[in-house]
Design goal:
Helices cover 35% and strands 28% of the residues. The chain is an alpha/beta fold. It folds into two domains: 220 residues, Rossmann fold; 68 residues, Alpha-Beta Plaits, CATH 3.30.70. Helix 3 packs across helix 4, helix 4 crosses helix 5 and helix 5 packs parallel to helix 6.
Length: 309
């Protein structure tokens, strides 16, 4: 549904985006992450047809954002990190105004406005002035506006920026529901823990270039991140820890955590079965063996260097 091919965006001598390529299929929820200045907003604006690339192309469905902008626009819903709202309008009036701009009229307009209010959990605020809505509700109203014409693709630039914890949870649940009904979503965010819960794919950028693009699980496998293993034994935890510590250089650190032996392993350490077999051979009875996956934040810190364009 989204295909980016060798995209470049130059501002004079400054390279904002350099040879960027990635793809997202129908129903993917893709996290676009990177440090400030990595080129995320520029890339989203190109996909939203608001900027023209210097070189390369991108496609929404089969249509080029360079050569078929008029055909792309009905397929996308774009929510910038800061969007203007008409504060003296009521929420329903605000949506009706934009529905009319999409040429949705009459009973269809009333139906569509009701549907997007329900989808974004704003039905009970339909008669409230936009000015009276919290920032989280205004963000959801902006998302409702982007959904009025039922786009196949949503481009969201920092939609959770400035939201309190409850509002972020509510926004996350809305996005999960949109993915469930088949929307393809590209979302940039600095809140990696939330992207980890939502996204099935990530695109990591640094200095305008692609560092990684693909499945979150594949990223974890490919990143050279230290692993953590929790091991429980019926008795002799201290002796088990001493034995495991001898497995250097694979075992980098041994500690105790809530009664379990916690191993910090190098990225190239053998699988957990190796350590369970070692303990069993020495007469220990295992009660727990659990490997903690590295978080998206851990992986991000490993594969990026904090460089900007």
């Amino acid at each position: 549904m989204i295909r980016v091919e060798h995209l470049y965006k130059l501002y004079g001598q400054m390279v904002a985006v350099k040879d960027l390529s990635f793809a997202a299929a129908d129903g993917d929820l893709v996290g676009l992450i990177g440090p400030n200045g990595a080129g995320k907003t520029t890339s989203i604006k190109i996909l939203a047809t608001l900027l023209r690339p210097t070189y390369g192309d991108a496609f929404i469905g089969e249509y080029s954002v360079v050569h078929a902008r008029a055909l792309v626009k009905p397929m996308i819903g774009y929510v910038p990190d800061a969007f203007g709202v008409y504060e003296n309008m009521r929420a329903q009036e605000y949506l009706q105004f934009f529905a009319a701009a999409y040429r949705i009229e009459g009973t269809d307009q009333l139906r569509v406005v009701d549907e997007v209010l329900e989808l974004t959990d704003l039905t009970y605020k339909r008669d409230a002035l936009v000015l009276s809505l919290s920032r989280g509700m205004q963000q959801r109203l902006g998302l409702a506006r982007a959904l009025l014409h039922n786009p196949a693709v949503l481009l969201l630039d920092e939609p959770a920026s400035g939201l309190d914890p409850r509002a972020r949870v509510e926004m996350r649940e809305v996005l999960k529901e949109l993915q469930r009904i088949g929307k393809t979503i590209l979302i940039s965010s600095h809140i990696l823990s939330e992207l980890e819960e939502m996204c099935n794919k990530v695109v990591i950028m640094e200095r305008g270039e692609l560092i990684f693009g693909g499945d979150v699980a594949d990223l974890r496998r490919r990143a050279h991140v230290r692993r953590t293993l929790h091991i429980g034994v019926e008795s002799g935890s201290a002796q088990a820890a001493t034995l495991l510590q001898q497995q250097q250089p694979f075992v980098q650190e041994v500690a105790f955590n809530n009664g379990f032996v916690q191993l910090t392993l190098s990225a190239d350490a053998p699988p957990p079965a190796h350590f369970s077999q070692l303990l069993t051979q020495h007469g220990f009875v295992l009660t727990r063996l659990h490997e903690l996956e590295p978080s998206l934040e851990d992986v991000f810190m490993e594969v990026t260097k904090g460089l900007v364009s």
